[in-house]
Design brief:
Strand content: 25-35%
Order of helices and strands: HHEHEEEEEEEEEEEHEEEEEEHEEE
CATH class: Mainly Beta
CATH topology: Neuraminidase
Length: 409
């Protein structure tokens, strides 16, 4: 009797908790399918990246659109902003100093004040730190530094760091005129007046270098220290992790200056710790720009656009050759401007000869990268003559970037 009850309990247990052979097969198929799906989604090399930040520069695809409207928010000319309260302070208390411009901090509470003093060369300036309501905070630059390139004075986007470009301050001293009269009698020494705040020692150079300090103007030091190179441009990444800069040799700068040409430099990536990476050994006039996501840098060499990875340990670069596309765009541009479009039947009554180079066909002189997908390039004819720069045929074009198609493995 006890054995019969035990057998009945075992059968009831099996009926409650065991599954049929068909159910087991279905369950195994479901598990295998889920594992297969998981293995596909966890393999990043097999799928298209969700954002362009994850796409290496050499894996970018593009579409070119010539002669697009000027991008919104793009300033065609540099503006010398002057905070009114600071201008009033200069007018009332600092009549011997000429205010050049002010550079507001990202939070709007402070400003870098660029000014020229009576004992400063007209080509150089000094920097003070002010509050935005016009109150002086402190002198930023020591007397042995002369700042240059006002457009390079900048706050980092997070507002924690200040950068500018400067070189050693060289003030000529007059040669004393010899005199036959005896020296005057020595008098009791008088205490010397205080000529300015005490600055800690800062390394200076004969050529223009990038300097960096914190938001309060302290811990000033050179970010670059390559004597003989002239750094003339620097721009922060949007996430404040690095700067992109242009630099050239003294001889290259002087040669361009003699020919009344814009300066050219080699693009460089500079970390906030001073680590520097040369992006290209070719010289360019076009100022490099950051992508809005801070992952890449773009610049131009004549009619080629180059894009460099800036946020990876394995950087790549891409070259987008636009010569033929820009040339075709220029011919179409001048045909439209002449009012005589090319006939559809293949005739060519247009005044633009296919063999001629249109006057509107010019190198790339400027780039703007407002979104990761849209990289704007401007072509123009630029010439510098004494006291009169000439810029004509300014036209904007658009590169629409995307990831190259990839097959799933």
């Amino acid at each position: 009797m006890i054995k019969m009850e035990l057998d009945f309990s075992i059968r009831r247990y099996r009926a409650r908790f065991c599954i049929t052979h068909a159910q087991l097969i279905a369950l195994l198929i479901l598990i295998a399918g889920a594992a297969s799906c998981t293995s596909i989604t966890l393999r990043p090399d097999d799928v298209r990246p969700r954002v362009l930040r994850d796409v290496p520069a050499q894996r970018l695809a593009y579409r070119f659109e010539p002669d697009v409207p000027i991008p919104e928010g793009i300033k065609n000319e540099a503006t010398d902003d002057k905070i009114e309260a600071i201008q009033i302070d200069f007018n009332t208390r600092r009549e011997n100093d000429a205010l050049m411009k002010t550079v507001r901090s990202p939070d709007g509470y402070r400003a870098l004040v660029l000014y020229n003093s009576a004992d400063e060369s007209s080509q150089t300036f000094r920097i003070d730190l002010y509050s935005s309501d016009g109150n002086f905070v402190r002198n930023l630059t020591p007397p042995d530094l002369s700042c240059v390139f006002p457009e390079a004075v900048a706050w980092s986007p997070d507002g924690n760091t200040i950068t500018f470009i400067a070189h050693k301050n060289v003030k000529p001293t007059p040669t004393p005129t010899p005199s036959d009269s005896p020296p005057p009698a020595l008098l009791e020494p008088a205490p010397l007046p205080t000529v300015g705040p005490a600055f800690p020692p800062v390394q200076v150079f004969n050529t223009e270098q990038i300097y960096i300090c914190n938001r309060d103007g302290y811990d000033l030091k050179p970010l670059t220290s390559r004597e003989g190179l002239i750094y003339f441009y620097a721009s922060w990444a949007a996430d404040s992790h690095a700067l992109v800069a242009l630099a050239c040799r003294e001889s290259e700068w002087e040669a361009r200056e003699r020919d009344y040409k814009l300066p050219v430099g080699r693009p460089r990536l500079i970390s906030v710790d001073g680590t520097e990476r040369l992006l290209d050994d070719e010289l360019t006039e076009a100022l490099p720009v950051w992508s809005s996501d801070s992952s890449k840098v773009a610049t131009a060499f004549d009619t080629d656009v180059k894009i460099y990875d800036a946020a990876t340990n394995k950087p790549t670069q891409a070259v987008i050759k636009l010569h033929d596309a820009l040339l075709a765009g220029s011919r179409s541009y001048e045909e439209k401007a002449s009012g005589q479009p090319k006939p559809e039947n293949g005739g060519s009554p247009s005044p633009v000869s296919p063999a001629a180079i249109p006057a509107s066909f010019n190198p790339i002189v400027r780039l703007e990268w407002p979104t990761p997908e849209n990289l704007y390039v401007q072509t123009a004819y630029v010439r510098l003559i004494p006291n009169e720069p000439i810029t004509t045929f300014q036209r904007w074009h658009l590169l629409i970037l995307s990831a190259q198609a990839a097959l799933l493995k």
